[in-house]
Design a protein that fits this description.
58 residues; mainly beta; elongated; single chain
């Protein structure tokens, strides 16, 4: 478990993070709750997109 401004780990509560499960301001994760983020499985937040949606645009 990571609790920090910048984090990398399995579970993370951070401002900026790359992890498995995250609660963050900006995050990249398998599952996340963030203001801004990219997720693989499930995500919630203001500007949050899935990897699949991003790949469809490309």
């Amino acid at each position: 478990m990571t609790v920090s401004q910048f984090g990398i780990g399995l579970f993370s509560v951070s401002q900026f993070t790359i992890t498995g499960y995250v609660l963050a301001q900006i995050g990249l994760a398998y599952s996340l709750i963030a203001q801004i983020g990219i997720y693989v499985h499930e995500g919630y937040g203001r500007i949050v997109k899935s990897v699949a949606d991003i790949l469809k645009v490309i």
